[in-house]
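Justification of computing resources. Each target in the renewal requires a structure prediction run like the one illustrated here; the chain below, 503 residues long, is used simply to show the kind of job we budget for.
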Amino acid sequence: MTEKDVDAMETSEQESTAAAVAEPDETGETDERLVADVEQDDFDWKKPPVFDIAHKEDCVCEVKVTIPAENVMAVLDNVYNEMNDGVQVPGFRRGKAPRKLLEKRLGKYAHSSAIEQLTDAAAKRLVLESGLRPVSTAEVTGLEDKEQLNDQEDLVYTITFEVPGTCALADLAEIELERPEYEVSEEALESSINNIRTRFGRFEPLEDGVAEEGDQVVIDFKGTIDGEAFEGGSAEGYPYILGSKRFDENMEAAMVGKKAGDTATAEVVFADDYAAAEVAGKTAQFEISINEIKRRVLPELNDEFAKKAGHESMEVMRETTRKRLAETADEEIGHLLEEQVMQKLVDASTFVLPKGQIQKFIDAERASILERMRQQHISAEDMEREEENIREASEKQGLFSLKAMYVIDALSEQEKIEIVEQDFDDYARQFVQGDNAEQLEAFRAYFQSDDMRSSTEHRILYSKTLKAAIAKCKIKVVSPEELSKKEAEADTDDAAKEENNDA
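Resulting C-alpha coordinates:
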Protein backbone atom coordinates (compact mmCIF):
# COMPACT_ATOMS: atom_id res chain seq x y z
CA MET A 1 0.00 0.00 0.00
CA THR A 2 1.46 3.34 -1.06
CA GLU A 3 1.18 6.86 0.33
CA LYS A 4 -1.37 7.53 -2.40
CA ASP A 5 -3.44 4.65 -1.06
CA VAL A 6 -3.28 6.11 2.43
CA ASP A 7 -4.54 9.46 1.19
CA ALA A 8 -7.36 7.77 -0.71
CA MET A 9 -8.41 5.88 2.40
CA GLU A 10 -8.47 9.10 4.37
CA THR A 11 -10.51 11.07 1.87
CA SER A 12 -12.92 8.42 0.55
CA GLU A 13 -16.36 8.46 2.03
CA GLN A 14 -17.08 5.35 4.04
CA GLU A 15 -20.55 3.86 4.05
CA SER A 16 -22.10 3.79 7.49
CA THR A 17 -21.33 0.60 9.38
CA ALA A 18 -24.99 -0.08 10.04
CA ALA A 19 -25.76 0.07 6.33
CA ALA A 20 -22.85 -2.24 5.50
CA VAL A 21 -24.15 -4.84 7.92
CA ALA A 22 -27.86 -4.52 7.22
CA GLU A 23 -28.24 -3.51 3.59
CA PRO A 24 -29.46 -6.25 1.20
CA ASP A 25 -27.70 -6.69 -2.11
CA GLU A 26 -29.25 -5.67 -5.40
CA THR A 27 -31.07 -8.96 -5.84
CA GLY A 28 -32.70 -8.70 -2.43
CA GLU A 29 -31.16 -11.95 -1.30
CA THR A 30 -30.72 -12.89 2.31
CA ASP A 31 -27.65 -11.68 4.19
CA GLU A 32 -25.10 -14.43 3.53
CA ARG A 33 -23.46 -13.85 6.90
CA LEU A 34 -26.59 -15.18 8.54
CA VAL A 35 -27.58 -18.01 6.24
CA ALA A 36 -24.31 -19.50 5.05
CA ASP A 37 -23.74 -23.09 6.09
CA VAL A 38 -21.66 -22.90 9.25
CA GLU A 39 -19.84 -26.04 10.32
CA GLN A 40 -17.58 -24.53 12.97
CA ASP A 41 -16.64 -21.24 14.59
CA ASP A 42 -13.04 -20.57 13.59
CA PHE A 43 -12.90 -17.05 15.01
CA ASP A 44 -10.38 -16.55 17.82
CA TRP A 45 -12.72 -15.33 20.54
CA LYS A 46 -11.00 -14.03 23.66
CA LYS A 47 -14.38 -14.21 25.33
CA PRO A 48 -17.44 -15.54 23.47
CA PRO A 49 -20.27 -13.20 22.49
CA VAL A 50 -23.60 -13.32 24.30
CA PHE A 51 -26.89 -13.62 22.42
CA ASP A 52 -30.19 -12.58 24.00
CA ILE A 53 -32.78 -14.10 21.64
CA ALA A 54 -36.39 -12.93 21.67
CA HIS A 55 -39.12 -14.24 19.37
CA LYS A 56 -41.36 -11.32 18.46
CA GLU A 57 -44.29 -11.46 16.06
CA ASP A 58 -44.81 -14.45 13.78
CA CYS A 59 -41.52 -15.58 12.24
CA VAL A 60 -39.57 -12.56 13.55
CA CYS A 61 -36.52 -12.95 15.76
CA GLU A 62 -34.75 -10.15 17.62
CA VAL A 63 -31.27 -10.80 18.97
CA LYS A 64 -29.32 -8.51 21.24
CA VAL A 65 -25.64 -9.19 20.58
CA THR A 66 -22.99 -8.38 23.15
CA ILE A 67 -19.37 -8.78 22.05
CA PRO A 68 -17.03 -8.51 25.05
CA ALA A 69 -14.45 -5.70 25.00
CA GLU A 70 -11.57 -8.19 25.00
CA ASN A 71 -12.48 -9.11 21.41
CA VAL A 72 -12.82 -5.50 20.34
CA MET A 73 -9.32 -4.76 21.63
CA ALA A 74 -7.80 -7.86 19.99
CA VAL A 75 -9.41 -7.23 16.59
CA LEU A 76 -8.42 -3.55 16.57
CA ASP A 77 -4.85 -4.52 17.42
CA ASN A 78 -4.81 -6.99 14.51
CA VAL A 79 -6.24 -4.44 12.09
CA TYR A 80 -3.65 -1.81 13.01
CA ASN A 81 -0.81 -4.35 12.88
CA GLU A 82 -1.89 -5.41 9.39
CA MET A 83 -2.09 -1.77 8.33
CA ASN A 84 1.34 -1.04 9.71
CA ASP A 85 2.80 -3.95 7.77
CA GLY A 86 1.07 -2.95 4.56
CA VAL A 87 1.16 0.87 4.64
CA GLN A 88 4.16 2.97 3.70
CA VAL A 89 3.77 6.04 5.96
CA PRO A 90 6.04 8.94 4.89
CA GLY A 91 9.00 9.34 7.27
CA PHE A 92 8.80 5.79 8.66
CA ARG A 93 10.01 2.40 7.55
CA ARG A 94 7.29 -0.13 6.70
CA GLY A 95 5.87 -1.57 9.91
CA LYS A 96 7.44 1.13 12.11
CA ALA A 97 4.75 3.85 12.04
CA PRO A 98 3.47 4.81 15.53
CA ARG A 99 0.01 3.46 16.43
CA LYS A 100 -1.16 7.01 17.27
CA LEU A 101 -0.31 8.21 13.78
CA LEU A 102 -2.20 5.30 12.20
CA GLU A 103 -5.18 6.00 14.41
CA LYS A 104 -5.18 9.63 13.37
CA ARG A 105 -4.87 9.00 9.65
CA LEU A 106 -6.70 5.66 9.22
CA GLY A 107 -8.79 5.31 12.37
CA LYS A 108 -12.15 5.52 10.62
CA TYR A 109 -11.21 2.76 8.19
CA ALA A 110 -9.67 0.61 10.95
CA HIS A 111 -12.75 0.83 13.17
CA SER A 112 -15.08 0.09 10.26
CA SER A 113 -13.00 -2.98 9.36
CA ALA A 114 -12.98 -4.18 12.97
CA ILE A 115 -16.76 -3.83 13.29
CA GLU A 116 -17.27 -5.79 10.08
CA GLN A 117 -15.01 -8.62 11.27
CA LEU A 118 -16.67 -8.79 14.68
CA THR A 119 -20.26 -8.69 13.39
CA ASP A 120 -19.54 -11.28 10.69
CA ALA A 121 -18.00 -13.65 13.22
CA ALA A 122 -20.84 -13.08 15.69
CA ALA A 123 -23.46 -13.79 13.01
CA LYS A 124 -21.84 -17.13 12.16
CA ARG A 125 -21.60 -18.09 15.82
CA LEU A 126 -25.27 -17.16 16.32
CA VAL A 127 -26.34 -19.56 13.58
CA LEU A 128 -24.09 -22.28 14.96
CA GLU A 129 -25.23 -21.90 18.57
CA SER A 130 -28.94 -21.22 18.13
CA GLY A 131 -29.81 -23.25 15.05
CA LEU A 132 -31.76 -20.25 13.75
CA ARG A 133 -32.11 -20.17 9.97
CA PRO A 134 -32.77 -16.59 8.84
CA VAL A 135 -34.73 -16.14 5.61
CA SER A 136 -34.34 -12.38 5.32
CA THR A 137 -31.68 -9.72 5.45
CA ALA A 138 -30.92 -8.69 9.01
CA GLU A 139 -32.01 -5.25 10.18
CA VAL A 140 -29.25 -3.91 12.43
CA THR A 141 -29.69 -1.22 15.07
CA GLY A 142 -27.12 0.18 17.48
CA LEU A 143 -24.27 0.53 14.99
CA GLU A 144 -25.48 3.62 13.17
CA ASP A 145 -22.99 5.96 14.85
CA LYS A 146 -20.23 3.47 15.53
CA GLU A 147 -17.48 5.15 13.55
CA GLN A 148 -15.24 4.89 16.59
CA LEU A 149 -14.86 1.84 18.80
CA ASN A 150 -13.92 1.97 22.44
CA ASP A 151 -11.71 -1.04 23.02
CA GLN A 152 -12.52 -0.82 26.71
CA GLU A 153 -16.26 -1.31 26.16
CA ASP A 154 -18.40 -4.17 24.93
CA LEU A 155 -19.82 -3.83 21.41
CA VAL A 156 -23.60 -4.06 21.76
CA TYR A 157 -26.14 -4.00 18.96
CA THR A 158 -29.42 -5.66 17.92
CA ILE A 159 -30.28 -7.63 14.81
CA THR A 160 -33.80 -8.43 13.69
CA PHE A 161 -34.62 -10.96 10.98
CA GLU A 162 -37.26 -13.38 9.81
CA VAL A 163 -36.99 -17.12 10.34
CA PRO A 164 -38.80 -19.88 8.42
CA GLY A 165 -42.53 -20.23 8.90
CA THR A 166 -44.43 -23.37 9.78
CA CYS A 167 -46.88 -25.66 8.05
CA ALA A 168 -49.29 -27.87 9.97
CA LEU A 169 -50.27 -30.40 7.33
CA ALA A 170 -53.84 -31.49 6.79
CA ASP A 171 -54.61 -35.17 7.40
CA LEU A 172 -53.94 -37.01 4.15
CA ALA A 173 -56.46 -39.70 5.07
CA GLU A 174 -59.21 -37.06 5.00
CA ILE A 175 -58.38 -35.82 1.51
CA GLU A 176 -60.34 -37.22 -1.43
CA LEU A 177 -58.94 -37.02 -4.94
CA GLU A 178 -60.85 -37.59 -8.18
CA ARG A 179 -59.19 -39.85 -10.71
CA PRO A 180 -60.72 -39.79 -14.20
CA GLU A 181 -61.27 -43.24 -15.62
CA TYR A 182 -59.62 -43.76 -18.97
CA GLU A 183 -59.60 -46.44 -21.60
CA VAL A 184 -57.96 -46.10 -25.02
CA SER A 185 -60.87 -45.79 -27.43
CA GLU A 186 -60.80 -46.99 -31.01
CA GLU A 187 -61.26 -43.37 -32.10
CA ALA A 188 -58.16 -42.26 -30.15
CA LEU A 189 -56.17 -45.19 -31.52
CA GLU A 190 -57.16 -44.48 -35.14
CA SER A 191 -56.45 -40.77 -34.69
CA SER A 192 -52.95 -41.48 -33.38
CA ILE A 193 -52.16 -43.91 -36.20
CA ASN A 194 -53.46 -41.40 -38.74
CA ASN A 195 -51.14 -38.77 -37.27
CA ILE A 196 -48.22 -41.13 -37.87
CA ARG A 197 -49.58 -41.85 -41.33
CA THR A 198 -49.68 -38.10 -42.07
CA ARG A 199 -46.02 -37.72 -41.12
CA PHE A 200 -45.12 -40.42 -43.64
CA GLY A 201 -47.25 -38.83 -46.35
CA ARG A 202 -45.74 -37.03 -49.32
CA PHE A 203 -46.92 -34.03 -51.31
CA GLU A 204 -47.68 -34.64 -54.98
CA PRO A 205 -48.71 -32.05 -57.58
CA LEU A 206 -52.47 -31.53 -57.93
CA GLU A 207 -53.30 -31.61 -61.63
CA ASP A 208 -56.88 -30.45 -61.24
CA GLY A 209 -58.83 -28.96 -58.38
CA VAL A 210 -58.59 -26.04 -55.95
CA ALA A 211 -56.42 -25.44 -52.90
CA GLU A 212 -57.79 -26.74 -49.59
CA GLU A 213 -56.62 -26.63 -46.01
CA GLY A 214 -53.74 -29.08 -45.61
CA ASP A 215 -52.50 -28.56 -49.17
CA GLN A 216 -49.08 -27.15 -49.90
CA VAL A 217 -49.10 -24.15 -52.21
CA VAL A 218 -45.98 -22.82 -53.90
CA ILE A 219 -46.45 -19.07 -54.21
CA ASP A 220 -44.91 -15.74 -55.12
CA PHE A 221 -46.09 -12.84 -53.00
CA LYS A 222 -45.35 -9.16 -52.75
CA GLY A 223 -46.48 -6.83 -50.00
CA THR A 224 -46.66 -3.04 -50.14
CA ILE A 225 -47.54 -0.29 -47.68
CA ASP A 226 -48.83 2.88 -49.29
CA GLY A 227 -47.54 1.52 -52.59
CA GLU A 228 -44.01 0.94 -51.28
CA ALA A 229 -42.41 -2.51 -50.83
CA PHE A 230 -41.01 -3.28 -47.38
CA GLU A 231 -38.30 -5.58 -46.08
CA GLY A 232 -39.44 -9.19 -45.63
CA GLY A 233 -42.69 -8.52 -47.47
CA SER A 234 -42.01 -10.51 -50.62
CA ALA A 235 -40.76 -13.92 -51.76
CA GLU A 236 -40.76 -16.20 -54.81
CA GLY A 237 -41.32 -19.93 -54.95
CA TYR A 238 -42.35 -19.99 -51.30
CA PRO A 239 -43.85 -23.32 -50.09
CA TYR A 240 -46.69 -22.84 -47.63
CA ILE A 241 -49.07 -25.33 -46.03
CA LEU A 242 -52.60 -23.96 -45.79
CA GLY A 243 -53.91 -24.18 -42.24
CA SER A 244 -50.46 -23.92 -40.62
CA LYS A 245 -51.39 -20.36 -39.56
CA ARG A 246 -47.89 -19.02 -40.11
CA PHE A 247 -49.40 -16.35 -42.35
CA ASP A 248 -52.12 -13.90 -41.48
CA GLU A 249 -55.60 -15.43 -41.69
CA ASN A 250 -56.56 -13.04 -44.50
CA MET A 251 -53.69 -14.35 -46.65
CA GLU A 252 -54.69 -17.95 -45.98
CA ALA A 253 -58.34 -17.25 -46.78
CA ALA A 254 -57.36 -15.55 -50.04
CA MET A 255 -55.54 -18.70 -51.26
CA VAL A 256 -58.16 -21.30 -50.31
CA GLY A 257 -60.30 -22.22 -53.33
CA LYS A 258 -57.76 -21.01 -55.87
CA LYS A 259 -56.32 -23.07 -58.74
CA ALA A 260 -52.72 -23.25 -59.90
CA GLY A 261 -52.07 -20.16 -62.02
CA ASP A 262 -54.61 -18.02 -60.15
CA THR A 263 -53.79 -14.80 -58.34
CA ALA A 264 -55.19 -13.43 -55.10
CA THR A 265 -55.01 -10.27 -53.02
CA ALA A 266 -55.14 -9.84 -49.26
CA GLU A 267 -55.08 -6.97 -46.82
CA VAL A 268 -53.04 -7.48 -43.65
CA VAL A 269 -53.11 -5.16 -40.63
CA PHE A 270 -49.95 -5.46 -38.54
CA ALA A 271 -50.42 -5.20 -34.77
CA ASP A 272 -49.13 -2.11 -32.97
CA ASP A 273 -46.56 -4.23 -31.13
CA TYR A 274 -45.50 -6.26 -34.19
CA ALA A 275 -41.86 -7.36 -33.92
CA ALA A 276 -40.78 -5.43 -37.05
CA ALA A 277 -41.19 -1.86 -35.84
CA GLU A 278 -41.15 -0.35 -39.36
CA VAL A 279 -44.49 -2.02 -40.22
CA ALA A 280 -46.10 -2.15 -36.76
CA GLY A 281 -49.58 -0.64 -36.76
CA LYS A 282 -49.66 -0.31 -40.55
CA THR A 283 -51.84 -1.91 -43.24
CA ALA A 284 -50.21 -3.84 -46.12
CA GLN A 285 -51.62 -5.03 -49.42
CA PHE A 286 -50.38 -8.40 -50.68
CA GLU A 287 -50.49 -9.72 -54.25
CA ILE A 288 -50.20 -13.51 -54.37
CA SER A 289 -49.56 -15.81 -57.33
CA ILE A 290 -50.44 -19.49 -56.95
CA ASN A 291 -47.73 -21.29 -58.93
CA GLU A 292 -48.44 -24.87 -57.85
CA ILE A 293 -50.70 -26.84 -55.56
CA LYS A 294 -49.58 -30.08 -53.91
CA ARG A 295 -51.76 -32.46 -51.97
CA ARG A 296 -50.57 -34.87 -49.33
CA VAL A 297 -50.84 -38.52 -50.38
CA LEU A 298 -51.04 -40.88 -47.44
CA PRO A 299 -49.56 -44.39 -47.39
CA GLU A 300 -51.80 -47.42 -47.22
CA LEU A 301 -52.42 -48.84 -43.77
CA ASN A 302 -50.59 -52.12 -44.21
CA ASP A 303 -47.58 -54.03 -42.89
CA GLU A 304 -45.26 -52.21 -45.31
CA PHE A 305 -46.27 -48.87 -43.79
CA ALA A 306 -45.95 -50.29 -40.26
CA LYS A 307 -42.38 -51.42 -41.02
CA LYS A 308 -41.48 -47.95 -42.29
CA ALA A 309 -42.80 -46.60 -38.99
CA GLY A 310 -40.57 -49.02 -37.05
CA HIS A 311 -42.95 -51.90 -36.30
CA GLU A 312 -43.00 -55.53 -37.39
CA SER A 313 -46.58 -55.42 -38.61
CA MET A 314 -49.76 -53.35 -38.55
CA GLU A 315 -51.05 -55.45 -35.67
CA VAL A 316 -47.92 -54.78 -33.61
CA MET A 317 -48.13 -51.10 -34.49
CA ARG A 318 -51.70 -50.89 -33.22
CA GLU A 319 -50.84 -52.61 -29.93
CA THR A 320 -47.70 -50.52 -29.41
CA THR A 321 -49.65 -47.33 -30.12
CA ARG A 322 -52.45 -48.39 -27.76
CA LYS A 323 -49.88 -49.02 -25.01
CA ARG A 324 -48.22 -45.66 -25.61
CA LEU A 325 -51.55 -43.84 -25.44
CA ALA A 326 -52.39 -45.63 -22.17
CA GLU A 327 -49.00 -44.73 -20.68
CA THR A 328 -49.39 -41.10 -21.75
CA ALA A 329 -52.87 -41.01 -20.20
CA ASP A 330 -51.56 -42.51 -16.95
CA GLU A 331 -48.83 -39.87 -16.86
CA GLU A 332 -51.34 -37.05 -17.44
CA ILE A 333 -53.67 -38.47 -14.79
CA GLY A 334 -50.71 -38.66 -12.41
CA HIS A 335 -49.98 -34.96 -12.99
CA LEU A 336 -53.67 -34.18 -12.47
CA LEU A 337 -53.67 -36.02 -9.13
CA GLU A 338 -50.50 -34.19 -8.10
CA GLU A 339 -52.17 -30.86 -8.85
CA GLN A 340 -55.25 -31.92 -6.89
CA VAL A 341 -53.39 -33.09 -3.81
CA MET A 342 -51.21 -29.98 -3.74
CA GLN A 343 -54.22 -27.67 -4.07
CA LYS A 344 -56.12 -29.53 -1.34
CA LEU A 345 -53.11 -29.56 1.00
CA VAL A 346 -52.53 -25.84 0.48
CA ASP A 347 -56.23 -25.15 1.13
CA ALA A 348 -56.57 -27.40 4.20
CA SER A 349 -53.20 -26.98 5.93
CA THR A 350 -52.38 -24.23 8.43
CA PHE A 351 -49.49 -21.85 7.76
CA VAL A 352 -47.54 -19.22 9.64
CA LEU A 353 -45.43 -17.40 7.06
CA PRO A 354 -42.81 -14.63 7.18
CA LYS A 355 -44.14 -11.39 5.69
CA GLY A 356 -40.91 -10.63 3.91
CA GLN A 357 -40.82 -14.07 2.31
CA ILE A 358 -44.42 -13.67 1.16
CA GLN A 359 -43.53 -10.39 -0.52
CA LYS A 360 -40.45 -11.91 -2.11
CA PHE A 361 -42.55 -14.65 -3.74
CA ILE A 362 -45.17 -12.12 -4.87
CA ASP A 363 -42.45 -9.93 -6.41
CA ALA A 364 -40.95 -12.95 -8.19
CA GLU A 365 -44.34 -13.93 -9.59
CA ARG A 366 -44.98 -10.38 -10.74
CA ALA A 367 -41.62 -10.29 -12.52
CA SER A 368 -42.47 -13.60 -14.21
CA ILE A 369 -45.87 -12.34 -15.39
CA LEU A 370 -44.39 -9.14 -16.78
CA GLU A 371 -41.66 -11.07 -18.60
CA ARG A 372 -44.23 -13.37 -20.21
CA MET A 373 -46.24 -10.33 -21.31
CA ARG A 374 -43.15 -8.76 -22.85
CA GLN A 375 -42.39 -11.97 -24.72
CA GLN A 376 -45.94 -11.83 -26.11
CA HIS A 377 -45.20 -8.29 -27.34
CA ILE A 378 -47.83 -6.74 -25.07
CA SER A 379 -47.31 -3.01 -24.99
CA ALA A 380 -46.39 -1.04 -21.87
CA GLU A 381 -49.72 0.80 -22.15
CA ASP A 382 -51.67 -2.50 -22.11
CA MET A 383 -49.61 -3.73 -19.18
CA GLU A 384 -50.47 -0.57 -17.30
CA ARG A 385 -54.15 -1.09 -18.01
CA GLU A 386 -53.84 -4.63 -16.65
CA GLU A 387 -52.04 -3.51 -13.50
CA GLU A 388 -54.84 -4.51 -11.11
CA ASN A 389 -55.16 -7.98 -12.66
CA ILE A 390 -51.38 -8.39 -12.60
CA ARG A 391 -51.27 -7.43 -8.93
CA GLU A 392 -54.06 -9.85 -7.99
CA ALA A 393 -52.52 -12.70 -10.00
CA SER A 394 -49.09 -12.05 -8.48
CA GLU A 395 -50.44 -12.11 -4.95
CA LYS A 396 -52.53 -15.24 -5.53
CA GLN A 397 -49.89 -17.30 -7.33
CA GLY A 398 -46.99 -15.98 -5.24
CA LEU A 399 -48.69 -16.98 -1.98
CA PHE A 400 -49.67 -20.36 -3.44
CA SER A 401 -46.08 -21.06 -4.54
CA LEU A 402 -44.74 -20.21 -1.09
CA LYS A 403 -47.30 -22.42 0.64
CA ALA A 404 -46.56 -25.23 -1.82
CA MET A 405 -42.88 -24.99 -0.89
CA TYR A 406 -43.72 -25.35 2.79
CA VAL A 407 -46.06 -28.26 2.02
CA ILE A 408 -43.29 -30.13 0.19
CA ASP A 409 -40.82 -29.47 3.01
CA ALA A 410 -43.23 -30.67 5.72
CA LEU A 411 -44.56 -33.59 3.68
CA SER A 412 -41.16 -34.90 2.61
CA GLU A 413 -40.06 -34.84 6.24
CA GLN A 414 -43.27 -36.50 7.43
CA GLU A 415 -43.07 -39.24 4.80
CA LYS A 416 -39.28 -39.57 5.16
CA ILE A 417 -38.68 -39.06 1.44
CA GLU A 418 -35.09 -39.58 0.35
CA ILE A 419 -33.42 -39.21 -3.03
CA VAL A 420 -31.26 -42.12 -4.18
CA GLU A 421 -29.16 -42.61 -7.30
CA GLN A 422 -31.84 -44.79 -8.89
CA ASP A 423 -34.11 -41.73 -8.90
CA PHE A 424 -31.76 -40.01 -11.34
CA ASP A 425 -31.95 -43.04 -13.65
CA ASP A 426 -35.74 -43.01 -13.52
CA TYR A 427 -35.86 -39.27 -14.12
CA ALA A 428 -33.46 -39.44 -17.07
CA ARG A 429 -35.39 -42.34 -18.62
CA GLN A 430 -38.34 -40.01 -19.26
CA PHE A 431 -36.29 -38.26 -21.93
CA VAL A 432 -34.92 -41.36 -23.65
CA GLN A 433 -36.41 -42.77 -26.83
CA GLY A 434 -36.78 -46.53 -26.59
CA ASP A 435 -34.02 -48.53 -24.90
CA ASN A 436 -31.14 -46.34 -25.98
CA ALA A 437 -28.54 -47.03 -23.25
CA GLU A 438 -26.10 -44.45 -24.60
CA GLN A 439 -28.77 -41.75 -24.59
CA LEU A 440 -29.82 -42.74 -21.07
CA GLU A 441 -26.26 -42.38 -19.80
CA ALA A 442 -25.93 -38.96 -21.45
CA PHE A 443 -29.12 -37.66 -19.85
CA ARG A 444 -28.19 -39.13 -16.48
CA ALA A 445 -24.78 -37.43 -16.58
CA TYR A 446 -26.41 -34.14 -17.58
CA PHE A 447 -28.95 -34.16 -14.74
CA GLN A 448 -26.25 -35.09 -12.21
CA SER A 449 -23.85 -32.37 -13.37
CA ASP A 450 -22.94 -29.54 -11.00
CA ASP A 451 -25.17 -27.10 -12.88
CA MET A 452 -28.24 -29.34 -12.92
CA ARG A 453 -28.09 -31.60 -9.86
CA SER A 454 -29.75 -29.23 -7.40
CA SER A 455 -32.72 -28.37 -9.63
CA THR A 456 -33.09 -32.02 -10.65
CA GLU A 457 -33.14 -33.11 -7.01
CA HIS A 458 -35.84 -30.53 -6.36
CA ARG A 459 -38.04 -31.89 -9.16
CA ILE A 460 -37.47 -35.48 -8.06
CA LEU A 461 -38.29 -34.61 -4.44
CA TYR A 462 -41.44 -32.78 -5.51
CA SER A 463 -42.71 -35.72 -7.55
CA LYS A 464 -41.78 -38.45 -5.03
CA THR A 465 -43.34 -36.49 -2.18
CA LEU A 466 -46.65 -35.92 -3.94
CA LYS A 467 -46.80 -39.54 -5.10
CA ALA A 468 -46.36 -40.63 -1.47
CA ALA A 469 -49.16 -38.26 -0.46
CA ILE A 470 -51.51 -39.51 -3.19
CA ALA A 471 -51.01 -43.10 -1.97
CA LYS A 472 -52.47 -42.10 1.42
CA CYS A 473 -55.47 -40.16 0.08
CA LYS A 474 -58.91 -41.47 -0.76
CA ILE A 475 -59.34 -41.90 -4.53
CA LYS A 476 -62.71 -41.54 -6.24
CA VAL A 477 -62.91 -42.70 -9.86
CA VAL A 478 -65.01 -40.36 -11.99
CA SER A 479 -65.84 -40.14 -15.66
CA PRO A 480 -63.96 -37.53 -17.72
CA GLU A 481 -67.31 -35.80 -18.38
CA GLU A 482 -68.08 -35.53 -14.66
CA LEU A 483 -64.62 -34.16 -13.92
CA SER A 484 -64.89 -31.57 -16.71
CA LYS A 485 -68.30 -30.50 -15.40
CA LYS A 486 -66.92 -29.98 -11.90
CA GLU A 487 -63.95 -28.01 -13.21
CA ALA A 488 -66.31 -25.79 -15.21
CA GLU A 489 -68.45 -25.22 -12.11
CA ALA A 490 -65.34 -24.33 -10.09
CA ASP A 491 -64.27 -21.84 -12.76
CA THR A 492 -67.76 -20.30 -12.66
CA ASP A 493 -67.59 -19.99 -8.86
CA ASP A 494 -64.17 -18.34 -9.08
CA ALA A 495 -65.45 -15.88 -11.66
CA ALA A 496 -68.46 -15.06 -9.47
CA LYS A 497 -66.18 -14.45 -6.48
CA GLU A 498 -64.02 -12.09 -8.55
CA GLU A 499 -67.13 -10.17 -9.67
CA ASN A 500 -68.28 -9.85 -6.06
CA ASN A 501 -64.84 -8.64 -5.03
CA ASP A 502 -64.86 -6.08 -7.84
CA ALA A 503 -68.31 -4.92 -6.77
